[in-house]
Amino acid sequence: MQHLDDATRTELEAAAFRRLLHHLDEHKEVQNIDLMILADFCRNCLSKWLVAAADERGADLDYDAAREYVYGMPYAEWKAKYQQDATPEQTAAFEARQAEKREQKDA
Question: Which Pfam families does the record cross-reference, listed alphabetically (predicted)?
Fold first, then answer.
């Protein structure tokens, strides 16, 4: 993508991000813990990254507004409708992932 000008690259990146949000919205059955286990990020991470990007640019975006954008609705509503309790297997996999990350950091 180095051959693209900055504006076009930014537009493509933004379109891909919007498509990612749409894809996550179409797959609400994919829980945040699943994303954390497999990819080490979740919808809340995306929200935090949006807030950080806004801060870097001097734009005003609070975390709740960013989460509403990412989730497509207020977070409390999404959580009540779609979030499931983590299974013991998910919790164990998440804890193993975190332990692996700590080991890699300490190595």
Answer: DUF1244 (PF06844)
Q: How far is it, in rounded angstroms, from Cα 70 to Cα 20?
A: 10
CATH of domain 30-106: 1.10.3340.10
Task: Write out pLDDT tens, residues 72-100.
Answer: 999 999 999 999 999 999 999 999 999 99
Structure tokens belonging to residue 99: 């332990």
Cα 31 to Cα 10, 11, 41, 60, 78, distances in angstroms? 29, 28, 11, 28, 11
Residues 6+ apart with CB under 8 A from 25: 72
Q: What is the pTM of this model?
A: 0.89
